[in-house]
Hints:
alpha/beta, Rossmann fold, five-stranded parallel β-sheet, globular
Amino acid sequence: xxxxxxxxxxxxxxxxxxxxxxxxxxxxxxxxxxxxxxxxxxxxxxxxxxxxxxxxxxxxxxxxxxxxxxxxxxxxxxxxxxxxxxxxxxxxxxxxxxxxxxxxxxxxxxxxxxxxxxxxxxxxxxxxxxxxxxxxxxxxxxxxxxxxxxxxxxxxxxxxxxxxxxxxxxxxxxxxxxxxxxxxxxxxxxxxxxxxxxxxxxxxxxxxxxxxxxxxxxx
Length: 219
């Protein structure tokens, strides 16, 4: 069952022992258009990020589940055009969507970790995670993101599975030793929320423009 409202959050949070966050657009601000604009400049005016992902789902999904090395992914992007962009420029464009993690969200995670088992479950890839880890270290001196703020993190390219496939949800439950009905999952993608809810997880679809700290402030 999905609980989008604060008043409902107060009711069902009494049962929750575990909180699982998505990363992008929940904890990490994203600007998908920035990547599309830079890829258009590098690959040609015909390129549309969303359309390319729909036209070649296996290409992007293989990278998200670790079936493809970073160099092969960047080479694949190069092959989408005859303009011959460098892999370095393509890598920068691919990372352009990644913005920031505001300090209040870091404080929120530490506070929640005192009362709940807190996890991260993200569809991502090596290029993005490498960039974000460097950003966190440069901006905040954080070199232990995965352990300081979470009991455990689950990245799609490392566990070789991705949302919204059922396998990754079942894997997280088993690996973490947690129960679905005691677990709150927060994600910005309706498809990801739908699968979690069908498996008995409590869910919040985070796409209404509020900051996640506002959503969680009544815990």
